[in-house]
Amino acid sequence: MKAIVKTKKAPGVEVRDVNVPEVTDTDMLVKVKAASVCGSDVHVYEWTPSYEWMPLPVILGHEFSGEVVSVGAKVKTVAVGDRITAMPGMACSRCDYCQVGRPDLCRKRISLGLGGDGAFAEYIRLSAATTTFKLPETLSYEAASLTEPLSVVLRAVDLATLRVGQTAGVLGPGPIGLLAMQLVKLSGVSLLMVAGAAPDTKRLALATELGADVTVDVTKEDPVKKALALTRRGFDVVLEASGSPKSVPQALQMVKPGGKVILIGIHPAPGEIPTTDVVRQSKSIIGAYGYDADIWNRAIMLLNTKRVKVDSMISHRLPLTDANHGFEMLVKKEATKVIFIP
Ligand SMILES: [Zn+2]
Ligand SMILES: [Zn+2]
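Above: the input entities. Below: the structure tokens describing the complete assembly.
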């Protein structure tokens, strides 16, 4: 089968012919129907710092949906023919974090598409321990492949504990930012600003289409000044989804005293924190990562009812053989969300 493989600790990926994974009694085989490219896949493609630990070669891809085509005798959770999506992380269920109900912090977690073979392939093998979700008949494979990133964002917005009428800013109009702003909007904010840089022009237009009240091109306008002009004291909540270290101090200046900055972006270098301001103004900085099954079920509902709209975010549908083209378009920000259809 064809697969997109990270082979070297250097920029790039290779499309390779590899064997279809063999399934044992405790595995299932899933025919991948749609696999979406995550910002982290682009980081791995570009080989930015913080992925050195990856065991190579490895098939990339962790946001996916597909059809179960083979089931080991000991797998009771799915049946052949099921349309599913699945959590790409496998927790050990034994460590101290797993035992207190925080599998997202598991010490022995294996992440498919990073630490083990992922979904940019015709087939993916999942172990019986994988948490799978049966898709509603009305939910397309394409939309369902965005359940994982939407779940990441749902956790972040849960942590923001927004109340109706509060104000919020979202930094970075990439797929994560565009999902975050939709959830923020659904939370009933009275004002929502989305900020991005010049190459994001198309994405900022999409943010407006999806309900942003104000968009800011940070290469033309100071987002901090804009935030303060709009709100006087700053936003109640700012979600950082740009992954740009520069935006961390900006987010902290945009948030009002007592407000929260939620960090979702993965940063290639540390961001500076104005410590004394954070202390004196009682601002919170919260890191959001991972999810649980309840979050995934809510994400599937939001996608199925189209309360969260992803169709306009999916800019390109490509075969696996167009891997390099797909990644390059994302690096240059010509694409918003690229989906591989194996
Ligand atoms: Zn992802
Ligand atoms: Zn564990």
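Note for the figure: Residues 38, 40, 62-63, 148-149 surround zinc ion (ligand 1) (CB under 6 Å).
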